[in-house]
Automatic annotation (TrEMBL):
Single GO biological process annotation from the record: cell adhesion
Alphabetized UniProt keyword annotations: Cell adhesion, Collagen, Extracellular matrix, Repeat, Secreted, Signal
Cross-referenced Gene3D superfamilies: von Willebrand factor, type A domain
VWFA domain mapped to chain residues: 1-135, 156-328
Cellular location(s): Secreted, Extracellular space, Extracellular matrix
Annotated protein name in UniProt: VWFA domain-containing protein
Predominant cellular place of this UniProt entry's protein: secreted
GO CC annotation: collagen trimer; extracellular space
InterPro entries: ECM_Assembly_Org, VWF_A, vWFA_dom_sf
Membrane-spanning segments: none
Organism: Paramormyrops kingsleyae
Length: 353
């Protein structure tokens, strides 16, 4: 059980893995203090829960097939947009129930809920005991009807990060973006593998595809990555480097088994070398490339390296990366179903080098 309060911004009272006994949870709930605040930003609160609570580090067992259930109690109409956050929650398979009172917007409650029938309007919260049994019934119903995920198709995902001086002050935002993407991958069951490489004048591997088989170990390693540094920015050389040294069987690539090979490039500035030929070589090798740029990144460069126009993204700064993370994660999930097998691509299996 987790509890979050929100007004202008959300505040965590307890995470899913804070307590392991019912007694401790009940004691913590009894000691809760009202958060306060005039603004009501339900949309921001829903997105916060998706990105920070329903994750493995916070105790979520979503990837183990455990139903994820959200019960929202609202006392007023939201002042921000809820549509995007609601869509993101539903895409993740989160089952939402909404309970509103006083000035809560009925349509808003129905929009947030998994189904309009799971939205309840009350005169005030003192009447909650009257609907308690109904809510418990719905929770049990959700637990039995939410489909458990099957073992997903496999993916090899490599992050190529601009580690030059261009990103020295924004590297923490880049790190958080990578962590959010990884949290939505299936690492623990062996389906997905992840590697991280930084580049400036030259490229440097932080860890390769076969370094970790545990998501927690991978996330912990991400936290300890040190910004590479360097004035020069040679993206072209870095693209060649990952193709020749990371997308290989010796580094853990499963390309010869038909596993999709995916490269996410995060750029903070224009490259000082040619990127056209390395980008073409990646396309010819059937590697799917995302180009993601911040601040001084060259939009044309991003479009050139991206496999399709929909794989090119440009944001104003690293903090804005979180706005595109759900879209990028969704595209990654689509790729695992659309990419052909090695036999289809090449007529035979061979090691990509």
């Amino acid at each position: 059980v987790s509890v979050v309060q929100y007004s202008q911004e959300p505040e965590v009272n307890l995470y899913l893995n804070t307590f392991s006994t019912k007694g401790d949870v009940l004691d913590a709930i009894r000691s809760l203090r009202h958060k306060g605040g005039r603004a009501v930003n339900t949309g921001a609160a829903l997105q916060f829960i998706r990105d920070n609570i329903l994750t493995a580090p916070s105790g979520s067992r979503r990837l183990e097939g455990v139903p994820q259930i959200l019960i929202l109690l609202s006392g007023g109409r939201s002042e921000d947009d809820i549509r995007g956050p609601v869509r993101n929650m539903k895409e993740m398979g989160i089952f939402s129930l909404s309970i509103g009172t006083r000035n809560a917007d009925t349509l808003e409650l129905q929009t947030i809920s998994h189904n309009p029938k799971y939205a309840v309007s009350l005169t005030d919260f003192d009447t909650l005991p009257a609907v308690q049994q109904e809510i418990i019934f719905w929770i049990n119903e959700a637990s039995h009807h939410i489909p458990k995920p099957t073992k997903s198709a496999r993916k090899d995902v490599i992050f190529l990060l601009d580690g030059s001086d261009n990103t020295r002050n924004t590297f923490e935002g880049i790190r958080r973006f990578v962590q959010r993407i990884v949290e939505n991958l299936n690492v623990d069951d062996g389906s997905d593998q992840v590697a991280v490489v930084q580049y400036s004048k030259d490229a440097e591997i932080n860890f390769n595809l076969k370094s970790f088989s545990s998501k927690n170990e991978l996330l912990n390693s991400l936290k300890s990555i040190v910004h590479k540094g360097g004035r020069d920015v040679k993206m072209g050389a870095a693209l060649d480097y990952v193709r020749d040294n990371v997308f290989t069987a010796s580094s853990g690539s499963r390309h010869a088994e038909g596993v999709p090979q995916i490269l996410l490039v995060l750029s903070g500035g224009r490259s000082s070398d040619d990127i056209r030929h390395p980008a073409q070589a990646l396309q010819e090798s059937k590697i799917k490339v995302f180009g993601i740029g911040m601040r001084n990144a060259d939009v044309l460069e991003l479009q050139t390296i991206a496999s399709t126009p929909s794989f090119a993204f440009s944001v104003s700064d690293a903090e804005s990366l979180e706005n595109i993370q759900p879209k990028v994660s969704s595209l990654l999930n689509d790729l695992q179903e659309r990419l052909p097998t090695a036999a289809t691509l090449f007529g035979k299996n061979y090691d990509l080098r």
